[in-house]
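new request in #modeling-help
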Amino acid sequence: MKAFLASWAMFVFVAIPLAAQAPARLPRTADGKPDLNGIWQALNTAAWDLEDHSGALHTPPGQGVVEGGEIPYRPEAIKKKAENFAGREKYDLAETACYMPGVPRAMYMPYPFGIIQTPKLIEMNFTFAHARRNIIADGTPHPDGFPDFWMGDSRGRWEGDTLVVDVKNLDERTWLDHAGNYHSDALHVVERYTIIDPTHIQYEATLEDPKVFTRPWKINMILYKILDKNAKILEYECVYYLQDEKYGNAKPVVVSK
Amino acid sequence: MKIIATVMFAFVTVSLAEAQEQKWVAPRTSDDHPDMQGAWARRGTRIQEANGPVSPLGEFSSTGQPYPTIFNTGVATALDRATLAVQKTGVVDPADRVLPWRPEADAARREFIRHMIPPASLQYVEPTARCVLPGPVDGDDRSPFFIVQHPGSFVLAYEYNHVTRVIYTDGRSHVGKKLRFFMGDSIGRWESDTLVVDTTNFNDKTSLAQTIPYHSEELHTAERFTRVSPNLIEYQLTLEDPKLFTRPIKVAGYFAAAPKDTEPMEFACAEGSQTLPNVFGIEFAPTR
Protein backbone atom coordinates (compact mmCIF):
# COMPACT_ATOMS: atom_id res chain seq x y z
CA MET A 1 0.00 0.00 0.00
CA LYS A 2 2.77 2.36 0.89
CA ALA A 3 4.50 1.49 -2.34
CA PHE A 4 1.33 2.24 -4.23
CA LEU A 5 1.04 5.62 -2.55
CA ALA A 6 4.64 6.35 -3.31
CA SER A 7 4.22 5.57 -6.99
CA TRP A 8 1.00 7.52 -7.07
CA ALA A 9 2.78 10.48 -5.50
CA MET A 10 5.51 10.20 -8.08
CA PHE A 11 2.98 10.10 -10.84
CA VAL A 12 1.36 13.25 -9.50
CA PHE A 13 4.73 14.86 -9.19
CA VAL A 14 5.56 14.01 -12.78
CA ALA A 15 2.11 14.78 -14.13
CA ILE A 16 1.85 18.31 -12.81
CA PRO A 17 4.81 19.70 -14.70
CA LEU A 18 3.48 18.04 -17.87
CA ALA A 19 0.10 19.66 -17.39
CA ALA A 20 1.77 23.02 -16.94
CA GLN A 21 3.21 22.61 -20.42
CA ALA A 22 -0.26 22.06 -21.87
CA PRO A 23 -0.09 25.03 -24.28
CA ALA A 24 2.40 23.07 -26.39
CA ARG A 25 -0.41 20.59 -27.09
CA LEU A 26 -3.05 23.17 -27.95
CA PRO A 27 -5.12 22.35 -30.99
CA ARG A 28 -4.07 24.57 -33.88
CA THR A 29 -5.58 25.59 -37.17
CA ALA A 30 -3.85 25.10 -40.52
CA ASP A 31 -2.36 28.62 -40.21
CA GLY A 32 -0.84 27.77 -36.83
CA LYS A 33 -3.21 29.78 -34.63
CA PRO A 34 -4.84 28.30 -31.52
CA ASP A 35 -8.02 26.54 -32.69
CA LEU A 36 -11.08 28.16 -31.11
CA ASN A 37 -13.56 26.31 -33.32
CA GLY A 38 -16.39 24.69 -31.45
CA ILE A 39 -19.32 25.38 -29.18
CA TRP A 40 -18.68 27.32 -25.98
CA GLN A 41 -20.54 28.72 -23.01
CA ALA A 42 -19.79 30.76 -19.92
CA LEU A 43 -20.90 28.96 -16.77
CA ASN A 44 -21.49 31.83 -14.40
CA THR A 45 -24.20 34.32 -13.45
CA ALA A 46 -22.70 37.40 -15.12
CA ALA A 47 -25.78 37.75 -17.36
CA TRP A 48 -27.83 38.46 -14.22
CA ASP A 49 -25.27 40.74 -12.58
CA LEU A 50 -21.58 41.32 -13.33
CA GLU A 51 -20.94 42.18 -9.69
CA ASP A 52 -21.31 40.01 -6.58
CA HIS A 53 -24.98 39.33 -5.93
CA SER A 54 -27.00 37.22 -3.51
CA GLY A 55 -29.76 34.95 -4.73
CA ALA A 56 -33.24 36.35 -5.35
CA LEU A 57 -36.38 35.14 -7.13
CA HIS A 58 -35.31 34.15 -10.71
CA THR A 59 -31.76 35.30 -9.93
CA PRO A 60 -29.12 32.68 -9.18
CA PRO A 61 -26.51 33.91 -6.70
CA GLY A 62 -23.07 34.59 -8.02
CA GLN A 63 -19.61 35.88 -7.39
CA GLY A 64 -18.79 38.84 -9.56
CA VAL A 65 -16.55 38.80 -12.63
CA VAL A 66 -15.43 42.44 -12.31
CA GLU A 67 -11.74 42.83 -11.48
CA GLY A 68 -11.53 44.74 -8.21
CA GLY A 69 -15.16 43.92 -7.40
CA GLU A 70 -17.07 47.04 -8.40
CA ILE A 71 -17.77 48.87 -11.63
CA PRO A 72 -16.24 52.38 -11.41
CA TYR A 73 -19.28 54.49 -12.28
CA ARG A 74 -19.02 58.24 -12.46
CA PRO A 75 -21.00 59.75 -9.57
CA GLU A 76 -23.83 60.96 -11.84
CA ALA A 77 -24.08 57.57 -13.59
CA ILE A 78 -24.80 55.63 -10.41
CA LYS A 79 -28.31 57.05 -10.30
CA LYS A 80 -29.15 55.78 -13.78
CA LYS A 81 -27.82 52.35 -12.91
CA ALA A 82 -30.14 52.28 -9.89
CA GLU A 83 -33.10 53.33 -12.08
CA ASN A 84 -32.25 50.62 -14.58
CA PHE A 85 -32.15 48.04 -11.79
CA ALA A 86 -35.56 49.14 -10.49
CA GLY A 87 -37.06 48.93 -14.00
CA ARG A 88 -35.18 45.89 -15.23
CA GLU A 89 -38.21 43.65 -15.76
CA LYS A 90 -39.50 46.20 -18.23
CA TYR A 91 -36.53 47.96 -19.78
CA ASP A 92 -33.86 45.28 -20.18
CA LEU A 93 -34.40 44.86 -23.92
CA ALA A 94 -32.52 41.56 -24.19
CA GLU A 95 -34.80 39.95 -21.61
CA THR A 96 -38.06 41.78 -22.27
CA ALA A 97 -37.92 42.14 -26.07
CA CYS A 98 -35.42 39.43 -27.08
CA TYR A 99 -33.22 42.00 -28.77
CA MET A 100 -29.60 41.18 -29.53
CA PRO A 101 -27.69 41.53 -26.26
CA GLY A 102 -24.62 43.45 -27.45
CA VAL A 103 -20.97 42.96 -26.55
CA PRO A 104 -19.70 41.79 -24.13
CA ARG A 105 -23.07 40.56 -22.79
CA ALA A 106 -23.57 38.08 -25.64
CA MET A 107 -20.47 36.23 -24.43
CA TYR A 108 -21.97 35.31 -21.06
CA MET A 109 -25.66 34.87 -21.80
CA PRO A 110 -26.60 31.49 -20.34
CA TYR A 111 -26.83 29.79 -23.74
CA PRO A 112 -24.17 28.16 -25.95
CA PHE A 113 -22.54 29.94 -28.88
CA GLY A 114 -20.35 28.74 -31.72
CA ILE A 115 -16.98 29.97 -32.93
CA ILE A 116 -16.14 29.42 -36.58
CA GLN A 117 -12.56 30.50 -37.11
CA THR A 118 -10.83 31.23 -40.40
CA PRO A 119 -7.65 33.26 -40.88
CA LYS A 120 -9.36 36.54 -41.79
CA LEU A 121 -12.92 36.14 -40.53
CA ILE A 122 -14.07 34.69 -37.23
CA GLU A 123 -17.81 34.17 -36.91
CA MET A 124 -19.59 33.73 -33.60
CA ASN A 125 -23.16 32.46 -33.79
CA PHE A 126 -25.21 32.73 -30.63
CA THR A 127 -28.19 30.69 -29.54
CA PHE A 128 -29.82 33.76 -28.03
CA ALA A 129 -31.69 35.85 -30.65
CA HIS A 130 -29.67 34.02 -33.34
CA ALA A 131 -27.26 36.93 -32.89
CA ARG A 132 -23.97 36.85 -34.75
CA ARG A 133 -20.64 38.60 -34.50
CA ASN A 134 -18.49 38.93 -37.59
CA ILE A 135 -14.95 39.47 -36.32
CA ILE A 136 -12.85 40.78 -39.18
CA ALA A 137 -9.21 39.82 -38.73
CA ASP A 138 -7.65 40.96 -42.00
CA GLY A 139 -5.73 43.85 -40.51
CA THR A 140 -8.29 46.52 -41.42
CA PRO A 141 -9.27 49.11 -38.81
CA HIS A 142 -12.81 50.09 -37.76
CA PRO A 143 -14.26 51.88 -40.79
CA ASP A 144 -14.96 55.57 -40.46
CA GLY A 145 -18.54 56.73 -40.43
CA PHE A 146 -20.21 53.44 -39.50
CA PRO A 147 -23.46 53.67 -37.53
CA ASP A 148 -23.79 51.95 -34.15
CA PHE A 149 -24.70 48.27 -34.25
CA TRP A 150 -26.41 46.11 -31.63
CA MET A 151 -23.38 43.79 -31.74
CA GLY A 152 -20.82 46.47 -32.57
CA ASP A 153 -18.01 46.43 -35.13
CA SER A 154 -15.33 43.88 -34.21
CA ARG A 155 -11.74 43.84 -35.53
CA GLY A 156 -9.49 40.99 -34.41
CA ARG A 157 -5.77 40.38 -34.36
CA TRP A 158 -3.48 37.77 -32.82
CA GLU A 159 -0.98 38.71 -30.13
CA GLY A 160 1.01 35.51 -29.87
CA ASP A 161 -1.57 32.88 -28.97
CA THR A 162 -4.16 35.38 -27.75
CA LEU A 163 -6.97 36.61 -29.99
CA VAL A 164 -7.48 40.31 -29.28
CA VAL A 165 -10.75 41.82 -30.51
CA ASP A 166 -11.36 45.55 -30.56
CA VAL A 167 -15.07 46.45 -30.49
CA LYS A 168 -16.58 49.87 -31.23
CA ASN A 169 -19.80 51.29 -32.67
CA LEU A 170 -21.85 49.72 -29.88
CA ASP A 171 -25.49 50.77 -29.59
CA GLU A 172 -26.16 52.48 -26.27
CA ARG A 173 -29.48 50.66 -25.86
CA THR A 174 -27.84 47.37 -24.84
CA TRP A 175 -27.11 46.70 -21.19
CA LEU A 176 -24.20 44.80 -19.72
CA ASP A 177 -26.42 42.54 -17.63
CA HIS A 178 -29.95 42.16 -16.25
CA ALA A 179 -29.04 44.23 -13.17
CA GLY A 180 -29.07 47.41 -15.23
CA ASN A 181 -25.33 47.88 -15.58
CA TYR A 182 -25.08 50.02 -18.67
CA HIS A 183 -22.85 52.00 -21.03
CA SER A 184 -23.11 54.85 -23.52
CA ASP A 185 -22.44 55.05 -27.25
CA ALA A 186 -18.83 55.83 -26.32
CA LEU A 187 -18.20 52.27 -25.12
CA HIS A 188 -14.99 50.72 -26.38
CA VAL A 189 -14.39 47.05 -25.56
CA VAL A 190 -11.11 45.19 -25.97
CA GLU A 191 -11.47 41.43 -25.57
CA ARG A 192 -8.72 38.89 -25.08
CA TYR A 193 -9.36 35.21 -25.84
CA THR A 194 -6.58 32.96 -24.52
CA ILE A 195 -7.05 29.22 -24.87
CA ILE A 196 -5.58 27.68 -21.72
CA ASP A 197 -6.21 24.05 -22.63
CA PRO A 198 -8.17 22.41 -25.46
CA THR A 199 -11.51 22.92 -23.72
CA HIS A 200 -11.15 26.22 -21.84
CA ILE A 201 -10.73 29.82 -22.97
CA GLN A 202 -9.70 32.56 -20.56
CA TYR A 203 -11.93 35.47 -21.57
CA GLU A 204 -11.07 38.99 -20.51
CA ALA A 205 -12.75 42.21 -21.62
CA THR A 206 -11.69 45.76 -20.87
CA LEU A 207 -14.52 48.31 -20.96
CA GLU A 208 -13.76 51.96 -21.49
CA ASP A 209 -16.53 54.56 -21.60
CA PRO A 210 -15.58 57.99 -20.26
CA LYS A 211 -19.21 59.15 -20.30
CA VAL A 212 -20.19 56.50 -17.74
CA PHE A 213 -17.06 55.17 -15.99
CA THR A 214 -14.19 56.95 -14.26
CA ARG A 215 -11.59 54.57 -15.69
CA PRO A 216 -11.31 51.45 -17.87
CA TRP A 217 -12.23 48.26 -16.02
CA LYS A 218 -12.07 44.56 -16.68
CA ILE A 219 -14.19 41.45 -16.51
CA ASN A 220 -12.67 37.99 -16.44
CA MET A 221 -14.20 34.56 -16.86
CA ILE A 222 -13.72 31.10 -18.34
CA LEU A 223 -15.52 29.93 -21.47
CA TYR A 224 -16.13 26.18 -21.45
CA LYS A 225 -16.23 24.00 -24.54
CA ILE A 226 -19.39 21.94 -24.96
CA LEU A 227 -18.22 18.39 -25.60
CA ASP A 228 -21.52 16.52 -25.82
CA LYS A 229 -21.72 14.28 -28.86
CA ASN A 230 -23.25 16.00 -31.90
CA ALA A 231 -23.72 19.28 -30.03
CA LYS A 232 -24.87 22.08 -32.30
CA ILE A 233 -26.37 25.53 -31.93
CA LEU A 234 -30.14 25.17 -31.93
CA GLU A 235 -32.72 27.87 -32.62
CA TYR A 236 -34.11 29.96 -29.80
CA GLU A 237 -36.42 32.36 -31.66
CA CYS A 238 -37.32 34.27 -28.54
CA VAL A 239 -38.82 37.14 -30.57
CA TYR A 240 -41.33 34.84 -32.22
CA TYR A 241 -42.47 33.34 -28.92
CA LEU A 242 -42.85 36.81 -27.46
CA GLN A 243 -44.85 38.00 -30.47
CA ASP A 244 -47.18 35.03 -30.00
CA GLU A 245 -47.64 35.99 -26.37
CA LYS A 246 -48.22 39.70 -27.05
CA TYR A 247 -50.28 39.54 -30.24
CA GLY A 248 -51.62 35.99 -30.41
CA ASN A 249 -55.09 36.99 -29.27
CA ALA A 250 -54.97 40.62 -30.44
CA LYS A 251 -57.27 42.15 -33.03
CA PRO A 252 -55.60 44.20 -35.75
CA VAL A 253 -56.29 47.92 -35.71
CA VAL A 254 -55.48 48.17 -39.40
CA VAL A 255 -58.63 48.37 -41.50
CA SER A 256 -59.23 47.28 -45.06
CA LYS A 257 -59.06 49.92 -47.76
CA MET B 1 -12.63 46.47 -90.17
CA LYS B 2 -14.02 47.30 -86.77
CA ILE B 3 -16.72 44.69 -87.25
CA ILE B 4 -14.19 42.06 -88.19
CA ALA B 5 -12.11 42.83 -85.12
CA THR B 6 -15.15 42.53 -82.89
CA VAL B 7 -16.15 39.21 -84.39
CA MET B 8 -12.64 37.89 -84.00
CA PHE B 9 -12.50 39.06 -80.41
CA ALA B 10 -15.76 37.28 -79.62
CA PHE B 11 -14.44 34.13 -81.27
CA VAL B 12 -11.24 34.26 -79.26
CA THR B 13 -13.14 34.85 -76.02
CA VAL B 14 -15.37 31.83 -76.49
CA SER B 15 -12.47 29.57 -77.43
CA LEU B 16 -10.57 30.72 -74.42
CA ALA B 17 -13.56 30.00 -72.23
CA GLU B 18 -13.88 26.53 -73.68
CA ALA B 19 -10.21 25.86 -73.14
CA GLN B 20 -10.37 27.10 -69.55
CA GLU B 21 -13.50 25.17 -68.83
CA GLN B 22 -11.72 21.93 -69.52
CA LYS B 23 -8.85 22.57 -67.17
CA TRP B 24 -10.32 24.89 -64.52
CA VAL B 25 -10.40 23.25 -61.14
CA ALA B 26 -11.77 24.97 -58.07
CA PRO B 27 -9.16 25.88 -55.45
CA ARG B 28 -9.08 23.38 -52.57
CA THR B 29 -9.44 23.70 -48.82
CA SER B 30 -7.01 22.04 -46.42
CA ASP B 31 -9.28 18.96 -46.32
CA ASP B 32 -9.29 18.78 -50.14
CA HIS B 33 -12.78 20.01 -51.00
CA PRO B 34 -13.61 22.89 -53.35
CA ASP B 35 -12.97 26.18 -51.59
CA MET B 36 -16.14 28.28 -51.82
CA GLN B 37 -15.21 30.74 -49.10
CA GLY B 38 -15.82 34.42 -49.51
CA ALA B 39 -18.56 36.97 -50.04
CA TRP B 40 -21.29 36.11 -52.52
CA ALA B 41 -24.45 37.69 -53.93
CA ARG B 42 -27.32 35.33 -54.63
CA ARG B 43 -29.55 35.36 -57.67
CA GLY B 44 -32.58 33.26 -58.45
CA THR B 45 -34.20 30.70 -56.13
CA ARG B 46 -37.44 32.65 -56.03
CA ILE B 47 -40.49 30.47 -56.54
CA GLN B 48 -42.57 32.28 -59.13
CA GLU B 49 -45.26 29.89 -60.26
CA ALA B 50 -47.29 30.11 -63.44
CA ASN B 51 -51.04 30.39 -62.84
CA GLY B 52 -50.52 31.26 -59.18
CA PRO B 53 -52.71 33.75 -57.35
CA VAL B 54 -51.81 37.42 -57.35
CA SER B 55 -49.75 38.30 -54.29
CA PRO B 56 -51.64 40.54 -51.89
CA LEU B 57 -48.27 41.63 -50.52
CA GLY B 58 -46.85 42.82 -53.81
CA GLU B 59 -47.51 46.50 -53.26
CA PHE B 60 -45.85 46.34 -49.84
CA SER B 61 -42.63 44.79 -51.07
CA SER B 62 -39.61 46.97 -50.63
CA THR B 63 -37.84 48.07 -53.75
CA GLY B 64 -34.17 47.56 -52.90
CA GLN B 65 -31.72 46.66 -55.62
CA PRO B 66 -30.08 43.23 -55.75
CA TYR B 67 -26.66 43.21 -54.10
CA PRO B 68 -24.04 43.87 -56.80
CA THR B 69 -21.92 41.02 -58.11
CA ILE B 70 -18.52 40.88 -59.69
CA PHE B 71 -20.32 40.85 -63.03
CA ASN B 72 -21.56 44.37 -62.29
CA THR B 73 -18.10 45.51 -61.33
CA GLY B 74 -16.57 44.16 -64.52
CA VAL B 75 -13.71 41.96 -63.41
CA ALA B 76 -15.22 38.51 -63.98
CA THR B 77 -13.21 36.12 -66.16
CA ALA B 78 -14.21 34.91 -69.60
CA LEU B 79 -15.02 31.53 -68.08
CA ASP B 80 -17.30 33.23 -65.55
CA ARG B 81 -19.15 35.03 -68.31
CA ALA B 82 -19.50 31.90 -70.41
CA THR B 83 -20.71 29.97 -67.34
CA LEU B 84 -23.13 32.70 -66.29
CA ALA B 85 -24.77 32.52 -69.71
CA VAL B 86 -26.01 28.99 -68.99
CA GLN B 87 -27.10 29.48 -65.36
CA LYS B 88 -30.79 28.91 -64.75
CA THR B 89 -32.86 30.73 -62.16
CA GLY B 90 -36.26 30.22 -60.61
CA VAL B 91 -38.51 27.18 -60.93
CA VAL B 92 -36.95 24.69 -63.35
CA ASP B 93 -39.12 21.67 -62.59
CA PRO B 94 -41.91 21.62 -63.60
CA ALA B 95 -40.56 23.33 -66.72
CA ASP B 96 -43.83 25.21 -67.26
CA ARG B 97 -43.69 26.47 -63.62
CA VAL B 98 -47.22 25.17 -62.94
CA LEU B 99 -46.61 23.67 -59.52
CA PRO B 100 -47.98 20.18 -58.77
CA TRP B 101 -50.41 21.36 -56.08
CA ARG B 102 -52.72 19.02 -54.32
CA PRO B 103 -56.07 20.63 -55.22
CA GLU B 104 -57.25 20.96 -51.62
CA ALA B 105 -53.88 22.47 -50.55
CA ASP B 106 -53.99 24.95 -53.43
CA ALA B 107 -57.51 26.01 -52.47
CA ALA B 108 -56.51 26.36 -48.82
CA ARG B 109 -53.53 28.63 -49.50
CA ARG B 110 -55.59 30.78 -51.93
CA GLU B 111 -58.13 31.24 -49.16
CA PHE B 112 -55.33 31.93 -46.65
CA ILE B 113 -53.70 34.74 -48.63
CA ARG B 114 -57.05 36.53 -48.94
CA HIS B 115 -56.71 37.25 -45.20
CA MET B 116 -53.13 38.52 -45.25
CA ILE B 117 -53.68 42.21 -46.14
CA PRO B 118 -54.73 43.49 -43.74
CA PRO B 119 -53.88 40.46 -41.61
CA ALA B 120 -56.92 38.91 -39.99
CA SER B 121 -54.79 37.93 -36.99
CA LEU B 122 -51.17 37.25 -36.09
CA GLN B 123 -51.12 33.93 -37.95
CA TYR B 124 -51.80 35.77 -41.23
CA VAL B 125 -48.84 38.15 -40.89
CA GLU B 126 -46.17 37.32 -43.47
CA PRO B 127 -43.43 35.47 -41.56
CA THR B 128 -40.55 37.65 -42.75
CA ALA B 129 -42.46 40.71 -41.52
CA ARG B 130 -42.08 39.17 -38.04
CA CYS B 131 -38.28 39.26 -38.41
CA VAL B 132 -37.90 35.56 -37.69
CA LEU B 133 -35.57 33.22 -39.53
CA PRO B 134 -36.61 33.05 -43.18
CA GLY B 135 -36.86 29.31 -43.76
CA PRO B 136 -35.65 27.33 -46.74
CA VAL B 137 -36.32 29.83 -49.55
CA ASP B 138 -35.00 33.17 -48.47
CA GLY B 139 -35.81 35.39 -51.42
CA ASP B 140 -33.71 38.27 -50.19
CA ASP B 141 -31.08 39.02 -52.80
CA ARG B 142 -30.27 42.49 -51.52
CA SER B 143 -27.57 41.57 -49.05
CA PRO B 144 -24.49 39.35 -49.36
CA PHE B 145 -23.85 35.83 -48.11
CA PHE B 146 -20.55 34.68 -46.61
CA ILE B 147 -19.32 31.13 -46.91
CA VAL B 148 -16.88 29.84 -44.32
CA GLN B 149 -15.51 26.29 -44.50
CA HIS B 150 -13.87 24.21 -41.87
CA PRO B 151 -13.06 20.49 -41.88
CA GLY B 152 -16.38 18.93 -40.91
CA SER B 153 -18.60 21.93 -41.54
CA PHE B 154 -19.76 24.39 -44.18
CA VAL B 155 -21.18 27.66 -42.92
CA LEU B 156 -23.50 30.04 -44.72
CA ALA B 157 -23.62 33.36 -42.92
CA TYR B 158 -26.33 35.57 -44.41
CA GLU B 159 -26.07 39.27 -43.79
CA TYR B 160 -29.88 39.27 -43.96
CA ASN B 161 -31.26 39.10 -40.43
CA HIS B 162 -27.91 37.62 -39.26
CA VAL B 163 -28.98 34.09 -40.23
CA THR B 164 -26.22 31.52 -39.73
CA ARG B 165 -26.51 28.02 -41.17
CA VAL B 166 -23.86 25.64 -39.86
CA ILE B 167 -24.03 22.59 -42.11
CA TYR B 168 -22.08 19.71 -40.59
CA THR B 169 -20.30 17.44 -43.07
CA ASP B 170 -18.79 15.17 -40.41
CA GLY B 171 -21.11 12.24 -41.02
CA ARG B 172 -23.53 12.89 -38.18
CA SER B 173 -27.25 12.18 -38.56
CA HIS B 174 -30.21 14.51 -38.29
CA VAL B 175 -31.40 15.54 -34.83
CA GLY B 176 -34.41 13.79 -33.29
CA LYS B 177 -37.81 14.08 -34.97
CA LYS B 178 -39.37 16.13 -32.17
CA LEU B 179 -37.00 19.03 -32.79
CA ARG B 180 -38.44 21.62 -35.15
CA PHE B 181 -36.64 24.65 -36.55
CA PHE B 182 -37.39 27.61 -38.83
CA MET B 183 -34.26 26.75 -40.84
CA GLY B 184 -34.60 23.00 -40.41
CA ASP B 185 -31.73 20.69 -39.53
CA SER B 186 -29.13 20.49 -42.29
CA ILE B 187 -26.47 17.88 -42.82
CA GLY B 188 -24.08 17.90 -45.77
CA ARG B 189 -21.91 15.52 -47.68
CA TRP B 190 -19.55 15.92 -50.59
CA GLU B 191 -20.48 14.16 -53.80
CA SER B 192 -17.25 14.62 -55.72
CA ASP B 193 -16.93 18.42 -55.90
CA THR B 194 -20.57 19.18 -55.11
CA LEU B 195 -21.79 19.85 -51.59
CA VAL B 196 -25.15 18.13 -51.14
CA VAL B 197 -27.23 19.34 -48.19
CA ASP B 198 -30.21 17.45 -46.83
CA THR B 199 -32.58 19.38 -44.57
CA THR B 200 -35.42 18.04 -42.44
CA ASN B 201 -36.95 18.97 -39.06
CA PHE B 202 -38.60 22.14 -40.40
CA ASN B 203 -41.37 23.78 -38.43
CA ASP B 204 -44.44 25.02 -40.31
CA LYS B 205 -43.94 28.70 -39.53
CA THR B 206 -42.13 30.00 -42.63
CA SER B 207 -43.31 30.73 -46.16
CA LEU B 208 -41.98 29.47 -49.49
CA ALA B 209 -43.07 32.55 -51.47
CA GLN B 210 -45.47 35.46 -51.09
CA THR B 211 -48.22 33.31 -52.58
CA ILE B 212 -47.12 30.13 -50.78
CA PRO B 213 -47.50 31.51 -47.26
CA TYR B 214 -46.72 28.30 -45.38
CA HIS B 215 -45.59 24.72 -45.75
CA SER B 216 -45.89 21.66 -43.55
CA GLU B 217 -43.47 20.06 -41.11
CA GLU B 218 -43.03 17.33 -43.70
CA LEU B 219 -41.03 19.70 -45.90
CA HIS B 220 -37.77 18.12 -46.96
CA THR B 221 -35.16 19.89 -49.06
CA ALA B 222 -32.02 18.90 -50.93
CA GLU B 223 -29.55 21.57 -52.00
CA ARG B 224 -26.52 21.31 -54.26
CA PHE B 225 -23.64 23.80 -54.22
CA THR B 226 -21.04 23.50 -57.01
CA ARG B 227 -18.31 26.00 -57.70
CA VAL B 228 -18.40 26.06 -61.49
CA SER B 229 -16.04 28.93 -62.30
CA PRO B 230 -13.78 31.34 -60.41
CA ASN B 231 -16.64 33.65 -59.46
CA LEU B 232 -19.74 31.45 -59.63
CA ILE B 233 -21.38 28.80 -57.46
CA GLU B 234 -24.24 26.93 -59.07
CA TYR B 235 -27.13 26.28 -56.69
CA GLN B 236 -30.05 23.87 -56.93
CA LEU B 237 -32.86 23.41 -54.45
CA THR B 238 -35.31 20.52 -54.49
CA LEU B 239 -38.35 20.88 -52.25
CA GLU B 240 -40.66 18.09 -51.29
CA ASP B 241 -43.77 18.68 -49.19
CA PRO B 242 -46.32 15.91 -49.61
CA LYS B 243 -48.96 17.98 -47.84
CA LEU B 244 -48.73 20.67 -50.57
CA PHE B 245 -47.42 19.01 -53.72
CA THR B 246 -47.88 15.66 -55.42
CA ARG B 247 -44.19 15.52 -56.35
CA PRO B 248 -40.93 17.43 -55.62
CA ILE B 249 -40.25 20.77 -57.31
CA LYS B 250 -36.86 22.16 -58.29
CA VAL B 251 -35.56 25.71 -58.13
CA ALA B 252 -32.25 26.96 -59.52
CA GLY B 253 -30.07 29.92 -58.73
CA TYR B 254 -26.47 30.87 -58.33
CA PHE B 255 -24.09 32.75 -56.12
CA ALA B 256 -21.83 35.25 -57.88
CA ALA B 257 -18.81 36.70 -56.12
CA ALA B 258 -19.65 39.96 -54.39
CA PRO B 259 -17.38 42.93 -55.07
CA LYS B 260 -13.93 42.67 -53.54
CA ASP B 261 -13.65 43.70 -49.88
CA THR B 262 -17.34 43.13 -49.14
CA GLU B 263 -17.67 42.79 -45.35
CA PRO B 264 -20.62 41.46 -43.39
CA MET B 265 -22.60 44.30 -41.83
CA GLU B 266 -25.27 44.00 -39.15
CA PHE B 267 -28.82 43.58 -40.46
CA ALA B 268 -30.97 44.04 -37.36
CA CYS B 269 -34.65 43.33 -37.93
CA ALA B 270 -36.59 42.59 -34.75
CA GLU B 271 -34.80 45.37 -32.89
CA GLY B 272 -37.11 48.31 -33.34
CA SER B 273 -39.40 46.82 -36.00
CA GLN B 274 -42.75 48.65 -35.93
CA THR B 275 -44.68 46.22 -38.15
CA LEU B 276 -46.59 44.38 -35.42
CA PRO B 277 -47.08 47.47 -33.20
CA ASN B 278 -48.61 49.20 -36.23
CA VAL B 279 -50.86 46.27 -37.11
CA PHE B 280 -52.11 45.65 -33.57
CA GLY B 281 -51.71 49.03 -31.87
CA ILE B 282 -49.74 47.43 -29.03
CA GLU B 283 -46.13 48.35 -28.36
CA PHE B 284 -43.58 45.55 -28.49
CA ALA B 285 -40.61 46.91 -26.57
CA PRO B 286 -41.29 49.43 -23.81
CA THR B 287 -39.82 52.88 -24.33
CA ARG B 288 -39.26 55.58 -21.78
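bot summary: The mean pLDDT of chain A is 91.
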